[in-house]
Every structure is written in structure tokens, then in C-alpha cells.
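Methods, example record. To illustrate the input and output format used throughout this study, we show the complete record for Endoglucanase. The sequence lines were provided to the predictor; the line carrying C-alpha cells was produced by it.
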Amino acid sequence: MMSSSNVVIMFGLSVFLLMNQVVSVDYGTALTKSLLYYEAQRSGNLPRNQRVQWRANSGLKDGSDARVDLVGGYYDAGDNVKFGFPMAFTITMLSWSTIEFRSQLEAKEELSNALDAIKWGTDYFIKAHPQPDVLYGEVGDGDSDHACWQRPEDMTTPRTTFKIDDQNPGSDLAAETAAALAAASVAFRPSDAKYADELVVHAKQLFDFARNHAGIYQNSIPVAGKFYSSSGYEDELLWAAAWLERATNDKTYLDYLSGAGNSGGARSSFSWDDKYLGAQVLASKLVLEGKSEGSGIWGQYKSEAEQFICSCIQKGNNNFKKTAGGLLWFLPWNNLQYSATASLVSAVYSKYLTDAKASLQCPGGVVQPSDLISLARSQADYVLGQNPKGMSYMVGFGSNYPTQAHHRGASIISIKKDPNEVTCQGGMETWFKKDAPNPNVLDGAIVGGPDENDGYADSRSNFQQAEPATVTIAPFVGVFASLA
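The corresponding predicted structure is encoded as:
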């Protein structure tokens, strides 16, 4: 029998191991805060029930240069730009989280907040889609915005609008927005069928736009390519078709999925740029339910989805890297966004397997649905403080969390406390360079996260690790709800 001292010698993480055994994590509070975060990211006229009180109205003239109302939506990360491509993925993932774990959200009295978070995005997308083959895909300019450090309420940078249309296509942007609207319609269907119907109309039009006018969106909106360059659009078309099938039960979208020439192959990540895995998982659900046969391309979808999951749980032929502390490790820049999507897929697939009374056969052995929930829990626990640094990577959660998140609004005194204008460079000198905690707690924000050695530097200038983004938190909403 191995003594506890031997365990310490082996792992060098004695405190971390003890924490894992005795500390129970408050997933309910993490869930509440994760939805609160989206209120801090709101652009536009803030509603009466706004809970994040250090924010005020902003971006009230967005769209005026094009004579279209583009007020609303979300600021992307720590900046003040509205990037349509990652915003759409954020809403798709918030919707997926809400659909799969609706009863848990309801039990924790967070369902209305989750739907509000989704609707803040979908209302904006409806505005941004004034004609079937027109979609506004960005407001603001990344270069000028990133050269300034201002509260959203003080913005002096250009709020230029950028769009795709039949002459300047963007199949990836249009299809991802279609996926977001279709997924949101499923989330709203039980409580607001009229709104769900409206979302489906826009989703169908955008899917047709994406199919009929092929092209990568950054060729039409070059300024977006510097920050969110798309690697292709086949994945978004599959992802959108899968969500439209779920939203409409229309055989058209089933046929699109079955007729696809490329199922994506085994993926190495799931993100705002690469949705193949998402499409594969939704297709696998159809196979597990018996709605689609398990051979041909449907068998490929399921096999490829399960290869990814097996690699996450370390029972595949090509397992994903894990840090010594147990975090799934994909890429250096904002790694937690990839850990988040992998965690949500694990939780969701656990549900699909349970419903089908099935298990997963990995090269390294049989995996039960409970094993997949354990994997998702391990990643959530790591993020919430059970890691070698004993640090929560969610701002405002626990007693030790990042105090200098790379975020303009949080790092500058609230306009309600000091209404004096913060200038572009004045904000940089006074607030960005200030070595002190942010004056506003950005509750629920999950920063980019630690490096591959479980290291983290809490510094505002460390944007690679310290900047939270809307795409990171959305999948964790579902993970926290599944565990709460």
C-alpha cells in the first residue's frame, strides 16, 4: 500500500490533491456569475433590470453611418468592437447550453437570465439582417480600438459598419449566424413560440444566403480578418444545417448533412473558427436516436465525434495534452476557450449516451456517461480553483482570482462614479498601466487561463492569458448548469 508521503513525492501536488478530495465546488454560484458576465459585455441601451450597475449605455449611434440601427449586441472581449463571427458562435453555444440543461437552469432560477443573454444577441442579429442577402458583420475597427483604452461609454474611436451581401459574400459568417438563430429558436420554443418562429425565418434566409453566395467573410470584411480570420466555411454550413434540422425537423437539412462530401475528419479543437466537431456531435445525436442510420457519412460523423471525446478522456489513439494539474491543453492563446468547448461536448455527449442507454467504446476501453461528466467536472473544478496555483480563473469567484483582467470597462472607474471623459491615450496612461486591481469586478469572466505548465501572471498587459472573451464563458454556462 502506498503511503501519503509517496503520493506527495510522486505528484508534487499534495495540497492540490487534498483540495480535490475535500473541497466541494459551488457550481450554482459559478453559473450565476457566468450569466452576469454577459450583462457587463452589453452594448446599447441597458434595460431596467440590468444587474451590472457599473456599466451604462454605450454605442447608441452604431449603424448610423449606414443608416441602419445596429444598437445592441455584445462587445467581444476586453475591447469595444462588435465582431459578428465570434458573437454568433457565443450565442450558438449559450443556446446549446440552455437547450441541453434547461431543467437545471430552471431549478437554479437562472433560465430567464440565460434566455435574456441569448436574446441580447439574437435581437441584434435580427437588426443586422435587414434583407435576406445582407448581414452586418462588424461594428467598430479593431486597429483603432486596440490603440485606445476607453470605457465603452466614452468611445471616441470610429464605429464603422461592415457587411456582407450577394456581391461580397461570407458563407462562414452567414451560416454561423444562421446556426445561432436556429439554436436560439430551440431554446425559446417552449416559452415564446412567436419569437422562435421569427428566429427560424432569419436562420433559413441566412443559410440560403451562405449556400448560394459562397465565400470567406474576411475577403468581404478585411478588417475582421486581422482578429477573427476564418479558415473556411464548410464547417459552418454543416453546423447551421444541424441546428436548422433540430429547429425545424425539415428533411431538407437532414439531406444536406447526409449529402455532405466532407464530414470534417478527426478534429483537434472546437472553437469560433472550427465547428466540425459541433456538427459531428449533433449528427451523432440523430444516430443515437435512430433518426439517421449509423453507416455511411452518419457513421463517420459519430466516429469522428467520439474520436475527439476519447482523446479528451485520454483513452484515444492520439490523446490531447493535459497539464500536470489536469487541464486539457490545446493552444497558448486563450486556452480555456478550447477547454470550455471540450467540457461542454463531454457533458452533452454524456446526456445523449444516457438517453440512448449507450456507452462509448474508445481504443483505451469503455467509457460510461458518468465518466464524461467526471471529465467535464474536472475541467470546471480546475477553472474554479482546484489547480496547482489554488487560483480561480473566474473573476469574482472564490477568494483568489485575477484582479487585473485585460478589460477596458472593468479596469477604468465607472462612469457613474466619475463622469469625466476618459480619453484614448489618457486611459492608457492612467488605467491600463496602473498596477492595481481593476476598480470594477467583472463577475463571471473567465480569463484566457494558465500556460501549459499551469503558470499564470495576473497582469493587465498579459492579454494572451488575462483577457476574457464571450466565446469562453458560453460553453461553461452549460457545464456549470449540468453540475449545479
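Annotations derived from this record:
The radius of gyration is 22 Å.
The CA atoms of residues 283 and 301 lie 6 Å apart.
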